[in-house]
Amino acid sequence: MTGGGRLGRERAFHERRSGERSERLSEADLRFEDAAYLDHESWVRDTFALLGDLRGKRVLDYGAGEGLSSVVLARRGARVVSFDIASGNVRLAARRAAANGVPLHLAQMAGEALAFREGTFDAVYGNAILHHVNLDQAGAELRRVLRPGGVAVFSEPWGENPLLEFARRRVPYRGKDRTPDERPLRLADVARLKAQLPGAEVRGYQLLSMIRRQVRWRPLVSLLERADRLLLALFPGLWRWCRYAVIVLRKEGA
Fold first, then answer.
1. CA-to-CA distance for 7 and 241, rounded, in angstroms?
2. Residue 95 is part of which domain span?
């Protein structure tokens, strides 16, 4: 599917990771409650809320990894099509769907070349995926496959905080395992998406509470999350310094 170059490197990285994960996970491990996914990061419930009522809608899980998000989308009544660049992730997502008793349509492909007809989907969901793709090509594909009035919601690592970027490059921390070509999104990247879907909206998450990446003491994290909500409400421009951004893209029309 993908040879050398960036796509080849991305595929190889995720094939390796999915192989390691698959070996460790039993069928019992694959079963989970929605809250385990929705609450694993502070922005996830909000991203699902931004998708609206999914009952009966066709939803694309864009770069779905091992399929947790796909299962939650299906449980909410969506007709889910799920894809990933790595065949190992597609197989793992199929196992997870079976373990949780939900129907999924699964495919292996790259986000820059979606094998779907124009206007196929009412909504698109993606978590930590846009920073892996060519945004000019991916934006054009998103516009093509969304129906008029459709919405795409993505949560992505954000790169406008210079101190955070220094830490990402220089400081070792738990789970620091990346592909050689990925990088957090920045304002210029949002502008590239707006070239295809002009009505883009961006929200920031984890300003002070980004410390939860290293510190797991729940009382402190909860306090900082409350402080984040207050600070971002009072000073909305601070979102640019956050760890993550939720990007909402809407296609005009009805």
1. 30
2. 5-250
Name the domain count of the chain. Answer: 1
pLDDT tens-digit profile of 109-135? 999 999 999 999 999 999 999 999 999
pTM value?
0.94
Task: Report the CATH number at residue 193.
Answer: 3.40.50.150
